Amino acid sequence: MILAKPNKFIVLLIFILFSCTLLAQQRKAYSLKGNVTDALTGKPLVGAIISIDFKKSGILTDSLGNYFLRIPEDEYVLKVSYLGYKPFRLYVKLNKNTVVDIQLQDVTKQLEEVIVSSIATRKNILTPSLGVSLLSMKGIKKIPAMMGEVDILRSLQTLPGVSSVGEGANGLNVRGGAVDQNLIFIDDTPIFNPTHLFGLFSIFASDGIRELELYKGGVPARFGGRTASVLDIKMLDPSLDKFKIEGGIGPISNRLLLDVPIVKNKLSILAVGRVSYNDFWFKAFAPDNIKNTRANFYDIATKVFYKPNKNNTISLMTYLSHDYYRVDSLFSLENVIAKESEFRYGHQNASLKWNHYISPKASFELIAAFSKYKTTTESPDSVNRIDLKNSIQYQNFKANLDYAFNEKHKANVGFSAVRYDLSPGSLNRDIVSKISKVELEKEQALELAIYADDEYKLNDKLTIQYGLRYTQFLNIGPIEVRKYLEGEPKSTVSLISTELKNGVAKSYGGFEPRLTMLYVFNPTTSLKFGYNRMQQFLHLISNNTTPLPTSRWKISDENVLPQISDFASIGYFKTWNDNVWEASLETYFRNINNVVDYVSGANLQLNQTLETQLLKGKGRSYGAELMITKKKGEVTGWISYTYARSFIQTTGQYPEQRINGGNWYPANYDKPHTVNIVFNATPDKHNSFSFIFAYNTGRPFSSPAGTYTLDGQQLPLYLSRNNDRIPDYHRLDFSWTITNPSMKEKRWEGSWIFTVYNIYGRSNPYSVFFTNGKDGTKVYQLSVFASPLVSLAYNFKFK
Amino acid sequence: MKIVKRLMLYFLLFSVGFWSCITEVRDFEQIDSAAFLSVEATLSNQKGPHKVILSFSSPSITINVENVPVKNAQVFITDDKGGRENLTEMDKGIYVTSATYRGIIGNAYTLHIDLPNGKKYESSPEILKAAPTIDSIKAQFNVNNNYPLTDARSVGFDVTLDFKDSPETSDYYQWKWTHYERTVFCASCERGYDYSLKKCSIEPNYPYGQTFPELINYGCLEPCFDISFNETYNILSDKLMNGQQVVNYPIMRIPYSSMSIYYLKIEQRTISEKMFRYFRSIKDVTQGSGTLFDVPAETQFSPNMVSLSDPNEKILGAFQVFGSQEKIIYVNRQRTDYSPVRVVYRGRELPIPSGGSSPKAYCIESKYRTKTEPEGFKE
User: Fold this and answer.
1) Which end is more exposed in chain B, N or C (fewer Cβ atoms within 10 Å of the end residue's Cβ)?
2) Tell me, what's the pLDDT at A291?
């Protein structure tokens, strides 16, 4: 009996094209027969379809699961398929009577190895979470990665409701939220800039990540501080018993992961790192004008895991990221012109976590987390040296208790205390230069919160998950508190008083109710409703299309109010065929108060009175997301369509307080229509093929309504913000992963990943802009990746 | 060897289009259009005539729709000492002061415009603040190794200047440079030159030696000078360098296109904070656009002109009052170590017929060309 080990024999698609059946009639015929059964139960499968060389033979298995064919001597590809089972393929050299017994695997019993699942259906359609997606790193690695660089932020953009302003954008926009409205955690430490190289790659070393949870809505009360979403990234826990090395070589970076148990079943350590080597590419291939550019990054994460006994675990995580970028003049600081600029930025994060198992009903965790994000901008020019630094530091202590009263009733309570220390700008503090020293006032704050979540199953049909968070935010001195005339545009003219305050300079507080309700029609269909209120006290100050990594942060104070978001959503979920197929439709509406907007021509850099450049606005976003997912089987993937809108409005008495005359205008990331198709086929355990197709409406930009002349120059005349749209975006990517090409079981396992990004080479515009010269106004578009990007990466594992 | 081959392939694959690209959009459709009164007025302590140009801005971004000049307006400048200067319309929409009129340091000037339709406009009073003298100007030959030596961007003379910022804070500076060069060709025509219209013929009107449409370059019938100037704003605030001696402040780069003397006039201006902010907003919109980090493109309306009849009317442009210091330098471009990258002209010159002369064209006054020999011109 030949067991169903299709992996050993399957020939690749390319080979199949050349298989030859010519002259078959003249050859001797042999029989090909066998028995088809369920691999798990051994039950015969009746009516399984037998195909020869991908053509149906017309033969089906009989009532005992037997099949029989008589065909000429030759080489064939035998395929057996049965609804709900993974197809079986075998390369057969038929030169004698042959028996092939086949065991097929039931797809519904297969372990899910999906890229994404809404928690709702993964843990069962019967849990109340809504708008929450769980992505496994194993799954993310299957979808095409630009330049072979597995990238979390790019992968997230294949989900409905997640987008960015374009390729190279520095962050994500989730359901109409700004980049700074996402709370990104890596093992409980926040990330303030999630990208390397000004937005080209995510900062997370993908090898060290186990999974990520994205809360687009339905955010539990244990999270707070940002208004749009929470991205909770979980690092791998080191293995307590198995040593492992993994790594990879790609066009952009090299990666290495070490998993070392130190005391078996007690103590282990995981270290993962990634280092880029882009300098080489710039020297070798860059056009003349950017040959001197240097762009490097690395990230290193470690995790020590200690399990003194079965009731306690302690883990210590550290994470470092660093970017270095040097260009021939990009940056100018209030017109100090630099010949060369250097940028350095990165995170230093650490968290210490103690988990204590109290009883089967209760468990407890204590977390101390630290994060620091620093940026430096330097121009080494000898006399006009510039050295501009800013930083944001986060310290957090939190405790959390989980308690299950019974099967139907679970609760979670805790508190969290965060201290922020911001140094928003310090120019030339430690260097000698003709350029003055400027020291912006440091900002400090405490964000204290208590919260409780409770999940209660009222009956078989209705489950309620409700939570409440109370946050008290304290802006702490010493700080200058500036008061302006109420309603007047904030400027030196309307400034009434300036007072240096110590202690609590300003405080804000408020309740944040969270609610999700689940109504189950039947075990495959459910309806959910959710409502969230979220507050945000920390704002990223940038009026660029996408924020610079060096943009400053600002905490709420007398003049900059906390952002408050109210979010409601309804979702309908359905699964078919034992969870193989899943469909969901979610709609949402979001209203945000105190959105930060900017006066026309705002000057944000090293500004001592930043509030004079800011406007208080309102935000509104709404949308509908339809997604159909196939989660199991040889072919998996999803199709999603999103309709989403996002608008901002600034009102005030004076024209300078009103952008676009005080009317609602589309946010930079307002892209009404988005379609994503992700397709993955894994015909055997060595080969995996994936396609991604992405389409979205072009983002808004400002286009001129005419021209005027000044000082001999013809200048474009812009009347309103975001009145036009850049052309639509679409792209197709492909990847082919060959795992263990030698097909032998060894301790060393290698895999090749071949990727083509933007297969048909569309010049998707990132921006459209206008220049004026002797020949009048010319219109140009900038595309970040205008041609197909082909790459090959090699990964290895040693166990 | 196998690994080397694999790596080679790998490089090849990777090098396919790593870089972003910028392409011209030719089918751009303008979705909004509007026109406003535009005021381009300057007054400094230099000798006159000083100009005020009035027009309605063009509602289209194509070059074919131009600004419409505002004719027959009453334009005058008053000062806080009771002085008044009436401007006369020199050309359509271009009003000038007398040649002797100049601004006096410390005075505040107001521009008044009365249109024939009865609408009146006025500027806020603008104080003329003295500009510091330019201490020195340097032109340093530099090679940019990023480009091959045959590329005009590789060789050139970087012009920088030194000056001393006054001890007072909130000084704002602007620099303008102007270069004059004798015009080589006054016209380049495919179908001959029309001497009555003083421009290229539309119908074939071939000069001697030309038989089919072809780009032919015409020399100049009269003295003619090409003008080039900075088309971007070069402005500086003393916020981060108050009271300092500013050294090697970059002004421009002279192309090493010939060995001849390069005539360069540099003007150093002291402008108001209002104008500084205004120019910066224009810079933000025009000079920084097209990057990943664009700021919202919004046109600032006039920082100092208002309509007396309708305070909500939006006006473009400004009344620029500034202190000015000028300096002319002659840069010697003789070098033995590098050869110049000469300008290549499209088209050809016709051979000179026996006893005749090659065809020549008139010098037409424009932003970029003048018949008047500039002051202190050397070549």
Assistant:
1) N
2) 67
